[in-house]
Amino acid sequence: MPIVKVIEVIASAPEGFEAAIQNAVTEVSKTIRNIDSVYVKDFKVHVSDGAIHSYGVICKVSFRVDE
Prior knowledge:
Low-confidence stretches: none
Number of strands: 3
Number of helices: 1
CATH class: Alpha Beta
Structural class: alpha+beta
Number of domains: 1
């Protein structure tokens, strides 16, 4: 029976929320294998001088643990 582990990560991107989520997956994929899903827990924007500077996400990444 496979075991699934969940970690929480924070990522951002200046282009938008989709790019921030992709950055999270890209970075986690460098050290974690068998990623099954990503649950976006929260969205945020970073503001500078009254304008959006970057978009951020807090994600829960689920992956299967090797037996």
